[in-house]
User: What shape does this take?
Amino acid sequence: MHEEAIRKADVLIEALGYIRKFHNRFTVIKLGGSVMEDPETLRALLVDVVFMQTVGLRPVVVHGGGKAISSAMQRAGLEPRFVLGRRYTDATTLEIVADVLIDGVNADIVRHINKYGGRAAALHPRTTSCLFGSPLTLPGEGGSRIDLGRVGEVDHVDTMTIENLCLAGIVPVLPSLALSRDDDGMLNVNADTAAAAVARHLRAEKLVFLTDTPGILRDRSDPGSLIEGLTPEGCRALIDEGVIDRGMIPKVEACLASLEAGVRKVHIIDGRLPHALLLEIFTDRGIGTEIAATGPARRDRRAG
Ligand SMILES: Nc1ncnc2c1ncn2[C@@H]1O[C@H](COP(=O)(O)OP(=O)(O)O)[C@@H](O)[C@H]1O
Ligand SMILES: CC(=O)N[C@@H](CCC(=O)OP(=O)(O)O)C(=O)O
Assistant: This one.
């Protein structure tokens, strides 16, 4: 009986060091569509976010919702089309993307954070947009540019609004939609790059990607092949070797850009694991892949 109580006290003491270290620091948390499919998984993650906000960290949530968007498109008789990992977004698709991300996913996250005793604010183009950008075109064959429709990239973040909300103890929740500086219309942004842009502009302490894999795996079919610590050079080598592939490429590229811009650590973790966020941030061992500018980021020598 006493042993169990002492073990719980030890857990709290272990967390105390991290709570002190990250007090008043920004942590940007990217929620991928894959972890928002199951209500119980989402509940556990948002309870962690409320915990972080309550103990004085400054969590900022940026979310996607790719799976829900694809389902809504299919219900409307539209076939999703991706070009180099980006959804081709015409005017009809943009309406669906905005409805799913704003009225569906964003509203759901805000409601749940409030329900679990926290306070959250929806920041999107239909309330207060904090993300501003320009249309993204990708290089095509023979020097041409690939047109992606209303797809954008973030080039400005209203950090003041985000910071003020955090200071007031409110968790800002942003979907991956930006306002175009050209025409004031909405742009659909890849959620990994949107989260990285927010982390860069806030000079966040941490950027955490919650996804549907234990982290970066050396062998994608073997969860035991998790790579716990990586440097940017290590990441580039794994991309060249083809170990990092598909959806993981934009995530890792977003990680590298964030680290270059001063974000201290990036974590890629399994959002399906209950309390993944608390385990990664408040324990010595962590659970996923940690990428830091200076390595080697060995787990047994981690200091947050
Ligand atoms: N080396 C790797 N380790 C783990 N996952 C990888 C790796 N390379 C590619 N992936 C793929 O990346 C996916 C995660 O990216 P993505 O599907 O875009 O997630 P999200 O919707 O959370 O943004 C994994 O489910 C996996 O299929
Ligand atoms: C331009 C572009 O591709 N935008 C993404 C935005 C959502 C997203 O990225 O969601 P996940 O994080 O769940 O993948 C899309 O339309 O799917």
Q: What stands out?
A: The chain has a mean pLDDT of 92. Residues 32-34, 64, 66, 192, 211-213, 216-217, 220, 243-248, 251 surround adenosine-5'-diphosphate (ligand 1) (CB under 6 Å).
